[in-house]
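Researcher: Following up on the earlier apo prediction. This time include the ligand. It's calcium ion, with the SMILES given after the sequence.
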Amino acid sequence: MSGLLLLGVDGAGAATATFTDAQGDAVGGAADLAQVVVSNDFDGNITFALTIPNRSSFTSDDFVVILLNVDRNASTGNNGVDYGFFITATRADLLQWNGTTFVRVLAPTLTASNNNMTLTINRSDLAKTTAFSFGVASGLDSNPAAGDSAPDTGGWTFDLDLKPTLDTLAARYSPAKPKAGKVFRLAGTTLRLDDGTTVKADSITCAIDRGGSAGLVWTDQGRVLHGPTHISYGCNTSQQSALAGANQRLSCKGPAGP
Ligand SMILES: [Ca+2]
Ligand SMILES: [Ca+2]
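Model: Understood. Below is the ligand-bound prediction.
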């Protein structure tokens, strides 16, 4: 004996951004950073793909660091830098600023490919970042003067595009409760997402199940309810395949049906 109101929410597309640095500006034969493509998917997996024209793979002398200000807050981390990737020919590690120094931390979702020039990590390992600023630097173990910085000064910013999560749903009915012999309409809905934005449902489906008797499928066109003995109704929401919990559930009693 429940009514369902299903609302779909359009998700935005996942994000990709390309950042470039000059070619040929690496000092002392270090890896020459030329391009970083950053992307993320709806599940929060972030990929950094480095293009390094003077390397098909890293030498044993090479290292690359990617510094991340995951909260874009300069007062947290080391000069704002909360995490860093330390990449060599043989491994890619995640480091975290512990207030004193950078320490290697477990990053269960971190994977490296393309000779460690492509890293993927879920934002769950980066303090659930939704937007971060970052910079990349290369160097050589054998020569402290060797290196390349990308960008040359400052940092780049990447905003993740994430699947919206429903925070609240408010539905208004007219009349406020079903009444025997009266058209019962959905007067409007308000969906609020976890980022604080309010969106419109891109589809609405309603169903009322009259306890025990044949179910009455009902749409927002409105329809006369023929006096069920009991109706309960409420709202669920649907976005992509996910269902959020009902936040409105009322019931009323009417006279016996005809
Ligand atoms: Ca460069
Ligand atoms: Ca920070």
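Model: The chain has two domains: 3-11+164-253, 22-150.
Researcher: Noted. I'll compare it with the apo version next.
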